[in-house]
Amino acid sequence: MKKILIILVIFLVSTNSLFAQNLNRANKLFQKRSYIEAAELYEKETVKTQEIYEKLGDCYYFNNEMKNAAFYYKTLLNNNASTVNPNYYFKYAETLKGTNNFEEADIWLQKYYEAKKLTPSQTVETLQFFKNLNATIKRPYELHKVTANTEGSDFGTAFYNNGIVFSSTRNEGPLYAWNNQPYLDLFQAEITENGDLVNVTPFSKEINTKMHESNAVFTKNGKTMYFTRNNFIDGKKGKDDQKVSNLKIYQAELVDGNWTNIKALPFCSDNYSVEHPALSPNEKQLYFASDMPGTIGSFDLFVVEKDENGQFGTPKNLGPTINTELREQFPFVSSNNTLYFASNGHFGMGGLDIFKSQILENNFSKPVNLSNVINSNSDDFAFIIDEDRELGYFSSNRADGLGNDDIYYFTQVQLFYVQGVVQNKNTLAPLPGTEVTLLNQKNDIIAKTIADNNGNYSFKIDRANSYKLKATQKAYMPFEIDFVTNNKGDINQNIPISMELFQDVEEKIVVENNKVQIKIEPIYFEFNRWNITKSAALELDNVVEIMKKYPTMAIEIGAHTDFRGEESYNLMLSEKRANSVREYLVSQGVANENVKSVGYGETQPINACVKPGICTKKQYSLNRRCEFVIIN
Hints:
Blueprint: H1 2-31, H2 35-44, H3 50-61, H4 66-79, H5 87-98, H6 102-116, H7 126-135, E1 141-145, E2 154-160, E3 163-168, E4 175-176, E5 181-182, E6 185-191, E7 197-202, E8 213-218, E9 224-230, E10 232-233, E11 236-237, E12 247-255, E13 258-264, E14 274-279, E15 285-290, E16 300-305, E17 316-317, E18 328-333, E19 338-343, E20 353-358, E21 368-369, H8 371-374, E22 380-386, E23 391-396, E24 406-412, E25 416-424, E26 435-440, E27 445-450, E28 456-461, E29 466-472, E30 479-484, E31 493-494, E32 497-499, H9 502-505, E33 509-512, E34 515-518, H10 534-549, E35 555-560, H11 567-587, E36 595-601, H12 617-621, E37 625-630
Parallel strand pairs: 25-31, 25-32, 35-36
Antiparallel strand pairs: 1-24, 2-3, 3-6, 4-5, 6-7, 8-9, 9-12, 10-11, 12-13, 14-15, 15-16, 16-17, 18-19, 19-20, 20-21, 22-23, 23-24, 25-28, 26-27, 26-29, 29-30, 33-34, 35-37
């Protein structure tokens, strides 16, 4: 019996020692970021502590195995609600989004914000957020898979020599313990006419090493490149105090067709990572991501100035508009000075989402999510765009991909326009306020607009269609032109609209008393009468002739009296005379809707004869008039 007890004690001690060794080895693998091997050992632990649940969840989380990560985070939170770090609320929310459980994810994300005393910039309702966002997007993205993707990792594109340079694990070599894939190298590819990538070849043996190389950027002349690599130079591997080889940005120069003078940038360090270089359009600033001291979150975006001698200044954090307490990486600056970057700190679909922000003089505009067409519930990152071609690339580990990370290319839904400037035909001065109308071939109105302060107008149009443009402006002859769009898509058209003043073309149209009028000889009515006399009809026929010539012209007939007689009587008399003139014009074929009659009585004199007995009959008669004012 005593021997049996001794054997049991020895067995238990040995077993506990074995478990301790197993856990110790798992922790060392976790520290070295060998997450796959570490997870296998943690799984074998029969008694799982809070720390083991945390690390198991992290092992799967960092390898994008969201279902497994969600299971262990859920177990962690159920068993250790009072002691768990709130950061695990966020990670659990991310795994829930990664498994399409958005409503539950929103609950845990809200708990994270509350625990961190953070105020989200919008209501934490993921699906509603993107529904509202998509409603504001006029030109959505269209995605296409790159056929050059492999079953490994392909990501991090950069424009170079009319082609693309990107990172890939398609090489043969030792495996990286994080994900059991080969180390990354840079490769180059040609861009097809539609944007796909073909003819992939290794980039340069001077750049590619046995360590990771990724995320390059090139100067416009192609003579200088910046790229991300592990802390490795001249065959030597640098490590921090935890024996981790952090990332650095290296610079290389193209000399006689070879990349040489390879060196780490001066603000890199063995003790933190500096990664993902991006150049400003003028190439005077270098943007990058880093977890260097002074970051707001785990990784922030920074910018550093480069002087004329190629010397770098002190990196500057982009600040809280861009950076959050979580992760911002993969910057890119487009030709129109827009910053694109990946973040899991700004509200999104889950994992890293891609955002854009306009670079202002001393700040940045509020980041905008690029929608759930570009972004998914996995990691989406490394966005680049050619603004001129409206073609770009980004990377993602979303579920429909071929490999671990894949490259996608995108275009934007094409919108085509007819646009131009409305101007005076003779002086070429712009004519703001002109009403411009777009009609189809059946003369149905499609849209109307008012020319802006510079005389510009614009309409969205479709391919393979027939249109008509009409323009109207007070005092100007109407403008009309037909045009056709083709079926190839190159249908953006610039059609200037040149308009002539009526008075330059029609001698009977003048500007008088600040009014554009059809000017005829005065028409007279018999005393206290309003019927049209033969002599008046002869003059009114001149108005009929002009209005038939310009069938869209609209006028106001204004009848006026002098100050002799009662005011109410004069108003009544002028209204009847104006209406008689309108009825005559309509009887002669002028469109009824183009003629408006108003009696003004004695309210709008054109001289100082404003009461009886102070003027001659001739002077009073000047106020007895009929005006034909063009109103459209």
